[in-house]
Amino acid sequence: MFDVLGVPPQVLFGQLLLGLINGSFYALLSLGLAVIFGMLNVINFAHGALYMIGAFVAWLLLNKLGLGYWWALGLSPLVVAAVGVVLEKTMLSRLYKLDHLYGLLLTFGLALIFEGAFRHLYGVSGQPYPIPDLLKGGQNLGFMFLPNYRGWVVVASLVVCLGTWFAIERTRLGAYLRAATENPVLVQAFGINVPVMITATYGFGVALAGLAGVLAAPIYQVSPLMGTNLIIVVFAVVVIGGMGSILGAILTGLGLGLLEGLTKVFYPEASNIVVFVVMAIVLLIKPAGLFGRER
Question: What confidence category does residue 241 fall into, taking pLDDT thresholds of 50, 70 and 90?
Answer without folding.
Answer: very high
